[in-house]
Each structure stands twice: as structure tokens, then as C-alpha cells.
């Protein structure tokens, strides 16, 4: 219950409120890899950790040490810890362990990987709506018992002890099942003064849809029209640049140069979550369509102060130096060409990496 980092934690619903007051969508980074400080510096409001397996986290000190790391040096970006779980007590226990260090917890109901689904984790939970509801309610109840403010009411959103409980989902082929699923998750119960989940992230693809297939904007439109006034909804999927979203919403205009304007207007969407495009361009939410050298330097600086495995650093640098994911030719500008990126991947340690980038960046990289 104490605040071990002596830092201020902001309730995620407060961030939704701030974005709404600024007449814009909330900008969030998907549960991915470890560069939360970098994306936050460039306009991402709220970050997710990668999925952490609750059962292992609860039982194994090594899992706890490796799966959830935060910077103790500076202010932390508002962070949601995402769990994979299928037992209410496991999710509640793991959440209880992490909330002193995070703004909220999230349950992954979208991971399509076969290892996860065969253990009734991730997208397999889309067939278990009662279990998901039980997990969420058990977690709220545990956090409440621990002394956290989880009612979702205004006073708790403004409290330093306010924390959120949320879920991230995919859609079913038959959208009526998704509507039933969300209805179950929003139905009030005696344990909660408001709804069981504070907000919801929708990845509008089914468990079987490959990520190369565009998101189903029609599903998103139906789900946000049905539920978007009851609960803040984030879109995850195909957020490639801020000016190329495949729909319009009151808070953003899409491609003015587009020959055919998007078919859908999504009035009740509260925010955007990006994964692949943010990996390639951590500055996406500051409005830039491709990654500048400055962001590579910023990331390097952070990794020197809070080291992470070198392979992971290299992976991030490679992504940032690759073409961006936006649709137009100018979005596809890459800091390094294909051959240079192949050379980059042969670099063996941090010193070699800095020398390599020093040589490639016009004017060299800044002092760190
Ligand atoms: C490297 C990487 C790791 C991911 N890990 C997770 C994860 O741990 N949990 C999760 O819910 N989604 C995860 N995703 C999926 C994204 O959250 C997102 O739903 C999907 O990539 C579609 O969004 P995009 O078009 O912005 O990439 C991951 C995606 C990528 C690229």
C-alpha cells in the first residue's frame, strides 16, 4: 500500500479526461517491449507492459525480477501492467503485487498465439466471459481490501491511491458474441459502485485474422456506438500515423490528400493504441510520420542509464532505423538502408553500437 517509489501516480481515467478536454484522442502504446520512457517523451500518454503470466509471477522470484522492470531514476510514464491469467485469485494476487508501482492492471483477452489459447489464456478467454468477469471483480475486490481506490468514481480517479482495472479484447466472427461479452463485463454488481472495468481496448480482428488484414472498422463502429458512451474505448490495430486512420472521429481529421474519404465516422472512440508503428517510430503521437535520429539518441541515452539486454536494444534500434508504417512514400523513409541494417544486426556490444551509429548519423550522434 505504501508508495515505494515516492512518485505520483495518475489514474488512467484522469488521462482520458485530460485528452477529452484537449479535444483529442488519448495516445497509448501497446503491450510490447521496453521503451516506455522514449514513447512517453514523444507524446504517448499511457503505456502498457508486455503480457506477464500471473501464475508464474506469483510463484517465481525470477519471473518477478525479469518480467516487470521500471525506472527508479526518473518519473515513470503512466503504466498499465498487463497480465495473462485464467484464475481469479492469480490475477488478483499478481495485481496486488504490482499496483504500488503502476497506474493500473489489464487482462489480456486478445493474444492469439496457440500456446496461450491452448492454456485458456489470451484470445481463448473471449469464449469465457463469466470467467473474465470473475477475474476482474476478484481483482477489484483484492485491491480494495489492500487499501487502493478502485471504485472508478470521481473521488477515486483523483486519489493518489486510485488504480484502474481494464481488459484488452479481440472481436468474434459473430459480433453478437462480442456484444454479449462486453455487456457481461459492464453489468454492475454489488462489489462495484460503477462498472467492473474502467476502460476497454478493442483490437478489431478475430483470433484467426492475420495482422496483414486491415482492421474491421465496421465492427469498431458498431461496438463504439453501442458501448462508447458507457465506457472509454481504445482502438488497437493499424494506427500507423495520426493522419492516416481509416475512419474519422470528432477529435481528428484524417488524410486531407486522400482521394476517397473514410467511410466510417467513429464518434465515441476515446483513444488510440499503437504497436508496430510505434516500434518503428516512437515519435508517432507527436505527429511525425517517420523516426528522427533524435529519437534513436534519446532511446540510447535511456538504455545507458537503465540497461536492458543488448539484443533487445539492438532490436529496438533496428526497428527505429527501418521504414515507417504510414501509407505514403514519405512515411517510408528509413534512417538506414537494408544493407546498413544488416550490418547493424552484426554489432556485438553497446560500444560498437554507439560507434556504428556515430558513423551512420549525419553529423554523428550527440554526447550521452
Ligand atoms: C512486438 C509485439 C508484442 C506484442 N505483445 C503484446 C502483448 O504482450 N499483449 C497484447 O495484448 N498485445 C500484444 N501485441 C499486439 C498489439 O497489442 C496489437 O494489438 C497488435 O499488434 C495490432 O496493433 P498494431 O497494428 O498497432 O500493431 C504485441 C504486438 C507486437 C508487435
Automatic annotation (TrEMBL):
Alphabetical list of Gene3D superfamilies matching this protein: Aldolase class I
Reaction(s) this enzyme catalyzes, per UniProt: a 5,6-dihydrouridine in mRNA + NADP(+) = a uridine in mRNA + NADPH + H(+); a 5,6-dihydrouridine in mRNA + NAD(+) = a uridine in mRNA + NADH + H(+)
Cofactor: FMN
Protein name: tRNA dihydrouridine synthase
Alphabetized PANTHER family for the sequence: TRNA-DIHYDROURIDINE SYNTHASE, TRNA-DIHYDROURIDINE(20A_20B) SYNTHASE [NAD(P)+]-LIKE
Top enzyme class: oxidoreductase
InterPro entries with a match to the protein in the record: Aldolase_TIM, DUS-like_FMN-bd, tRNA_hU_synthase_CS
Keyword Signal carried by entry: no
Keywords, comma-separated and alphabetical: Flavoprotein, FMN, mRNA processing, Oxidoreductase, tRNA processing
EC number of the protein: 1.3.1.90
Function: Catalyzes the synthesis of dihydrouridine, a modified base found in the D-loop of most tRNAs. Specifically modifies U47 in cytoplasmic tRNAs. Catalyzes the synthesis of dihydrouridine in some mRNAs, thereby affecting their translation.
Species whose genome carries this gene: Podospora pseudopauciseta
Molecular function GO terms recorded: tRNA-dihydrouridine20a synthase activity
Ranges for domain DUS-like FMN-binding: 33-321
Amino acid at each position: 500500500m505504501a508508495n515505494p517509489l515516492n512518485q505520483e501516480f495518475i489514474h488512467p481515467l484522469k488521462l482520458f479526461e485530460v485528452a477529452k478536454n484537449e479535444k483529442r484522442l488519448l495516445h497509448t502504446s501497446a503491450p510490447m517491449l521496453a521503451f516506455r520512457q522514449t514513447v512517453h517523451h514523444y507524446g504517448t500518454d499511457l503505456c502498457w507492459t508486455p503480457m506477464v503470466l500471473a501464475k508464474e509471477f506469483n510463484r517465481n522470484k525470477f519471473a518477478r525480477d525479469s518480467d516487470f522492470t521500471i525506472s527508479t531514476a526518473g518519473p515513470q510514464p503512466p503504466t498499465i501492467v498487463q497480465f495473462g491469467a485464467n484464475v481469479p485469485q492469480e490475477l488478483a494476487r499478481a495485481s496486488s503485487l504490482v499496483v504500488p508501482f503502476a497506474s493500473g492492471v489489464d487482462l489480456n483477452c486478445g493474444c492469439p498465439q496457440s500456446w496461450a489459447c491452448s492454456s485458456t489464456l489470451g484470445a481463448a478467454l473471449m469464449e469465457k466471459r463469466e470467467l473474465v468477469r470473475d477475474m476482474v471483480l476478484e481483482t477489484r475486490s483484492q485491491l480494495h481490501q489492500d487499501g487502493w481506490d478502485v471504485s472508478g468514481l470521481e473521488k477515486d480517479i483523483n486519489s493518489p491511491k486510485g488504480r484502474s482495472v481494464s481488459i484488452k479484447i479481440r472481436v468474434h466472427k459473430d459480433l453478437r458474441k462480442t456484444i454479449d461479452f462486453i455487456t457481461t463485463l459492464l453489468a454492475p454488481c454489488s462489489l462495484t459502485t460503477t462498472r467492473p472495468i474502467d476502460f476497454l481496448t478493442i483490437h478489431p480482428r478475430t483470433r484467426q485474422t492475420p495482422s496483414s488484414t486491415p482492421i474491421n472498422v465496421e465492427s469498431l463502429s458498431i461496438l463504439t456506438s453501442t458501448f462508447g458512451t458507457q465506457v472509454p474505448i481504445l482502438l488497437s490495430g493499424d494506427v500507423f500515423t495520426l493522419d492516416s486512420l481509416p475512419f474519422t472521429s470528432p477529435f481528428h481529421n484524417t488524410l486531407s490528400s486522400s482521394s476517397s474519404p473514410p467511410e466510417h465516422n467513429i464518434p465515441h472512440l476515446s483513444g488510440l493504441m499503437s504497436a508496430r508503428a510505434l516500434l518503428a517510430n516512437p515519435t508517432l503521437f507527436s505527429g511525425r510520420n517517420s523516426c528522427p535520429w533524435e529519437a534513436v539518441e534519446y532511446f540510447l541515452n535511456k538504455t545507458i542509464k537503465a540497461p536492458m539486454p543488448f539484443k533487445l536494444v539492438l532490436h529496438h534500434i533496428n526497428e527505429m532505423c527501418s521504414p515507417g508504417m504510414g501509407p505514403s512514400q514519405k512515411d517510408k523513409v528509413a534512417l538506414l538502408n537494408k544493407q546498413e541494417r544488416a550490418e547493424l544486426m552484426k554489432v556485438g556490444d553497446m560500444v560498437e553500437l554507439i560507434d556504428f551509429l556515430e558513423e551512420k548519423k549525419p553529423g554523428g550522434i550527440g554526447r550521452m
